[in-house]
Amino acid sequence: MNEWMKKFFEQLKTLWSKWTLVQKLILAGIVLAAVAGTVLLFRVSSAPTMVRLISTPIRSDDELRLITSRLDEERIPFEVGEGNVLYVKDEKTRAQANAVLLREDLIPKGTDPWSVFAIDRFTVTDFERNVNLRRAVVQEVRRHIESLGDVDKANVVIEIPEKELFTEDQNPVTASVILYPKPGSDITANRKKLEGVQKIIQFAVGGLAPENIVITDQNGVVLNDFSSLADFDRLERTKREQQLIQRLETQYRAAVLRALQQIYTEDRVRDLNIKIDMDMSKKSVQTKEFLPFTLRPDNPTTPYDDSEIVPSVTRSTSETRYEYQGTGFNPEGPAGAEGQTAPAYKDLQNMVGKATQTQTLRNEEINERNTEEDRSPSIDRVTISVNIDGMWTRKIDDKGRPVLRPDGGIEREYEPVPSAELKAAEALIQNAVGYDRARGDSVTVQNIRFDRTAQFRSEDEEFLRRQQVSQIILFSLIGLAVLMVSFIVFRLVSRELERRRRLAEEKRALEAQMLRENAIRQAEEQSIEVSMSVEERKRLELQEHAINMAKEHPEDVAQLIRTWLREE
To answer: How far apart are CA 5 and CA 11, in angstroms?
Structure first.
């Protein structure tokens, strides 16, 4: 650690010596600013904590001037912080200042109205509490309305009468609101938005009835008179019906397109037109059905149907029985005259007969079911038309390359969609949309060729571009290979010429050296003093030393020569 510190200080001294006077002054200023900031931070953190007088900043300078003037008159110490936020020293001072501002109606706009009740004092009367409550409710309702995106400003007046002893003497709670809509807003013509504003007011004030709420615009036009909005309601209903039809058409279209595009790809199925006719009228249907009685349901575990079904059940039975016994009827004529009885019946006279009559009255009960339902809306007709494009295939020659037209484009062949596939696609669409022939549904699937001129032109240009790039790359590689081969041949030839030149020079130098050595040796034999240079003497000594080394260590000398030859 000491060595690191020493090294650090040495580097610092080196840099300090290299810096100019301006750089040294800048560094000194940075150090002084850091020290001053640290001192200021500790001083601010050690300052006493202040309490906010008002939770929100005061945006208006006039309101800030009135509030500060009133606090100065009451001799209440305060401070104005960043963003026009007022601070006091403690909670007691805050309660005192809030009471003054509330009494003088100096609470700024945008402040939480319910925060004015956080006043810890015993001098507030019930009347003041009621007034503060009413003011807080009005401010809160106005803040709720102005928080809507369609309202720029709102004036709210709520009248809450005093409670009376008798109900007939009690005046109702009333409210009047003036809305200032933002530019481009449709709140004055949108019934849903107006009903929302009316409900905000109604639920915010207890005992307020909808008929006692009046909402107007800045021109005095009543907006919540919904009884005169019959035409508006009709248009809104028509709009909702059209939206329902469009949403249903979108669902059907997405389902059919997803099914077909998974089979024929997105590029071949583009055009799908769907039209749904719906009956939006409300219908009440009452149905009365007579069904048989099921005394015993079918057992699913048995292979046969063992259910017991009867058309009706006996509710009551009445039986009447009549019996007669005696002679038959024998009509007689007038007194003194023979009767007019036919000869066939004269034989039956004085014969006793017996008759029995039985009458049974049975009341049967049938199973009855009554159904009442409201139908709205219902689909009257579904019409779908789909166009599926065929397939384009490139013509290939014997070598596996695309066949080109005279203009340079690729030759293609169109294959239409078979009729069997069109029928299968039609059946698929019918099942997807719940096809009903009885209601007049229609599904049409055709094969119409798409115009792909621009697509084929871009594909041909891309193909020609790739072909040109391939040729350029091929020729470039061939040229690069030729250059590399030429460079290698040139390199080999130059190295061979250099080697031969070096061998010739070494040979000439060796011959000259040998001649000189022979001359020197002859001169020594003849005792002639020969002057030799220092370099020649060193060379001669090295030569003798090499000869001795070769004699003493021939293997090492041979390895050294091999290394030299390998490096060359």
So the answer is: 10
